[in-house]
Backbone:
C-alpha cells in the first residue's frame, strides 16, 4: 500500500526507536539535537525504513546538481541524505562542485581551482540537460547553514581538500549532528575519525575482506555506514554489517538506475528486500516510490 506523506512521516518516526528527531509535515526535513540522535537515526534495526541518498543532490530538469534549491526539491519526495561534492576555489573557499572543470555544469570554463569565489559566484549553474538556470554555485558554509534542522548532508570531498579543512568547517558550523563524511578507504576513514571521533563516516567495503578490515579499524560501528558498491553484494556482506548495527549503502547510479528506468520502482523495492538500507541514486522521484511501497 502506498503511504501518504503524513503516514510515511509518522511511521518513520515511530520506527526510529530511541530517536527523538523531528520531521516536518510539509517535506521530509529532519532535525537532530546531537550526534547520538543522528547515530540512532542511521543505525540498522530489523524494522528499519530504507532511505535515499540523493546523488549530487538529486538533479532534475531545471534543478542542477550540487545546488541548494535542488537539495530542497529532493526532500519533497522522500527522506534523503543529500550527497554533494566539495572542492576548493583559488582563494581557498570550499564550494560545491563535482567536476574538476566548470565546463559541464556552469556557464564558465576551466578549473574550479583557478577561479576565486567572486569569479565562481558570477557564473550560473546548468542542469543535466545543459540548460542555464538562475542558480549560482553554493559554498559549503551556505550548504551547512541550509541543512541545519532540515537535512543530513553527505560530503564527497575532492582532492586536494584535506580532512582537516572539512573537520574544521563542520566544527565551525556545529554541524556534526547532520553531516556524514564519505571516504573511499579505511585509512581515510581513520583520518577523519582521529580528527573528530563523533563524526559519522561512510566507508567503502565492497567484499568480506574489506568489511573485516573496516570492522577491525577501531572505529565504533555506530559511527559507520558501509558503502557496498554499485552492484548488489553477497547476502553475507549485508548480514555482517547488519549484525554490527550498520546500514549498507548501495550505489544504484548507473546500471541499477537504468534497470529501474525500464522496469519501474519495483527494482528498488527488490534491492531493499535483499538488504540495501540506503539507495544512492540519480532517480530520487522513482526510488522514492519504493520507500512507501516495498513489502516489509
Residues:
Amino acid at each position: 500500500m502506498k503511504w501518504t506523506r503524513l503516514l510515511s512521516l509518522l511511521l518513520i518516526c515511530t520506527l526510529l526507536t530511541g530517536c527523538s528527531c523531528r520531521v516536518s509535515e510539509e517535506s521530509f526535513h529532519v532535525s537532530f539535537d546531537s550526534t547520538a540522535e543522528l547515530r540512532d537515526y542511521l543505525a540498522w534495526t530489523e524494522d528499519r525504513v530504507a532511505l535515499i541518498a540523493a546523488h549530487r543532490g538529486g538533479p532534475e530538469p531545471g534543478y542542477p546538481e550540487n545546488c541548494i534549491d535542488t537539495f530542497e526539491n529532493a526532500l519533497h519526495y522522500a527522506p534523503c541524505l543529500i550527497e554533494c561534492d566539495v572542492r576548493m576555489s583559488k582563494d581557498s573557499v570550499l564550494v560545491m562542485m563535482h567536476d574538476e572543470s566548470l565546463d559541464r555544469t556552469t556557464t564558465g570554463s576551466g578549473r574550479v581551482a583557478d577561479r576565486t569565489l567572486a569569479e565562481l559566484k558570477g557564473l550560473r549553474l546548468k542542469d543535466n540537460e545543459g540548460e542555464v538556470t538562475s542558480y549560482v554555485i553554493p559554498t559549503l558554509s551556505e550548504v551547512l547553514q541550509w541543512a541545519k534542522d532540515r537535512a543530513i548532508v553527505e560530503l564527497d570531498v575532492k582532492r586536494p581538500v584535506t580532512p582537516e579543512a572539512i573537520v574544521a568547517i563542520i566544527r565551525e558550523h556545529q554541524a556534526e549532528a547532520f553531516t556524514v563524511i564519505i571516504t573511499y578507504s579505511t585509512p581515510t576513514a581513520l583520518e577523519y575519525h582521529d580528527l573528530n571521533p563523533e563524526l559519522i563516516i561512510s566507508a567503502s567495503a565492497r567484499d568480506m575482506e574489506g568489511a573485516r578490515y573496516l570492522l577491525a579499524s577501531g572505529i565504533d560501528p555506530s559511527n559507520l555506514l558501509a558503502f557496498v558498491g554499485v552492484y548488489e553484494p553477497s547476502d553475507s556482506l549485508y548480514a555482517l554489517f547488519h549484525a554490527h548495527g550498520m546500514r549498507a549503502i548501495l550505489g544504484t547510479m548507473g546500471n541499477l538506475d537504468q534497470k529501474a528506468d525500464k522496469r519501474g520502482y519495483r527494482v528498488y523495492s527488490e534491492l531493499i528486500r535483499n538488504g540495501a538500507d540506503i539507495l544512492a541514486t540519480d532517480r530520487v522521484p522513482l526510488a522514492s516510490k519504493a520507500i512507501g511501497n516495498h513489502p516489509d
The chain has one domain: 5-98+138-293. The first strand starts at residue 22 and ends at 23.
